[in-house]
Design a protein that fits this description.
- The protein is 47% helix and 20% strand.
- It is of the alpha/beta class.
- The chain has two domains: 164 residues, Bordetella uptake gene, domain 1 (D-Maltodextrin-Binding Protein, domain 2), CATH 3.40.190.150; 117 residues, Periplasmic binding protein-like II (D-Maltodextrin-Binding Protein, domain 2, 3-Layer(aba) Sandwich), CATH 3.40.190.10.
- Strands 1, 2, 3, 4, 5, 6, 7, 8, 9 and 10 form a ten-stranded mixed beta sheet that branches.
- The longest helix has 22 residues.
- The chain is globular and about 65 Å long.
- The N and C termini lie far apart (64 Å).
- Keywords: Signal.
- Belongs to the UPF0065 (bug) family.
């Protein structure tokens, strides 16, 4: 009799569990975004949130938590309840660069604190110089660097960011004698670049597109492995004379470790459906990024590979934050 009662109870529990999976989500999902409203990361996150909400028939609440290069948001998201109702809009910086930079303020190890949901988009940087600069190709720039050791400079929006580290990759790969000039944000860096107070910058595409299209900057190369639809006439670094130079950053969704597998699977499947939409692809490309579909396993491997890559560049650059 007891065995029959146990069996009936177990079947009931399985039935309820199945219904719970089918009904997920049954309330709004919070997406923590590690940067303030209005920036490029926020713009991509809002497109994703809107599309996810529509497909899941629920609201995606965007919770912008800017500060400390994304560290505040990362700590918050990692400690959220792992119930499928909080996801983190992760970036290359927050997941794979910050652990090497923020030794004390980053309280968690992203590799252990999160589980991947899926990649969303990839973003290349673009090597730009002032429209007044005498360089019209990457080779022109390389020739000038070699002819004037320790004279030319590259700008960044701050120590340890992907703009800085892409410049360090360029410097190390070419064995160039060129100095890094860090700024407090992209705007002052761009001002000095346009006035030729600094020589060059590996800017994020979304930041430079208006200035390139407006004729204020010259784009010499992009750091992706293929030319970009938004800059079809600009060669890749490999095409322009530095074979093997390829650096892209990514955006993706992760969830706190311990989030139910059923929720992770559903979020991933819906995300893949969204990324396959031509309309959504066009929205991302207008922001200077490319859709990046893929499995959760692929994303996990990408995070691990990039953690090692960027930690090595941070070490070589000597960049520190805390």
């Amino acid at each position: 009799m007891l065995s029959r009662l146990w069996l009936a109870t177990a079947l009931c529990a399985l039935s309820v569990s199945g219904l719970a999976h089918a009904d997920y989500p049954d309330r709004p999902i919070t997406m923590i975004v590690p940067f303030p409203p209005g920036g490029p990361t926020d713009a991509i996150a809002r497109h994703v949130g809107q599309a996810l909400g529509k497909e899941l028939n629920t609201s995606i609440v965007i919770d912008n938590r800017g500060g400390a290069g994304g560290v505040l948001a990362t700590n918050l998201a990692a400690n959220a309840k792992p119930d499928g109702y909080t996801v983190f809009f992760a970036t290359t910086g927050t997941m794979t660069i910050n652990p090497a930079l923020y030794k004390s303020s980053l309280k968690i190890d992203p590799l252990k604190a999160f589980t991947p949901v899926g990649t969303v988009a990839s973003a290349a940087n673009v090597l730009v110089v002032s429209k007044e600069a005498p360089y019209n190709s990457l080779q022109d720039l390389i020739d000038a660097i070699r002819a004037n050791p320790n004279v030319l400079t590259f700008a960044s929006s701050g120590n340890g960011g992907i703009i800085h580290l892409t410049g360090e990759q360029f410097k190390n790969m070419g064995r160039f004698q060129i100095s890094h000039i860090p700024y407090k944000g992209s705007a002052p860096a761009m001002t000095d670049l346009m006035s030729q107070r600094v020589t060059m910058m590996f800017d994020v595409i979304s930041g430079s597109i208006p200035l390139i299209q407006g004729g204020k900057l010259k784009a010499l190369a992009v750091t992706s492995d293929k030319r970009l639809p938004i800059l079809p006439d600009v060669p890749t670094m490999a095409e322009a004379g530095m074979p093997g130079f390829e650096t892209t950053s990514w955006f993706g969704l992760v969830a706190p470790q311990g989030t139910p597998e059923s929720a992770l699977s559903k979020l991933h499947d819906v995300l893949q459906h969204i990324l396959a939409s031509p309309g959504f692809k066009s929205q991302l490309q207008a922001l200077g990024v490319e859709p990046m579909p893929g499995s959760r396993k692929d994303f996990d491997e990408q995070i691990q590979k990039d953690t090692s890559k960027w930690a090595d560049l941070v070490r070589k650059s000597g960049a520190t934050v805390d």
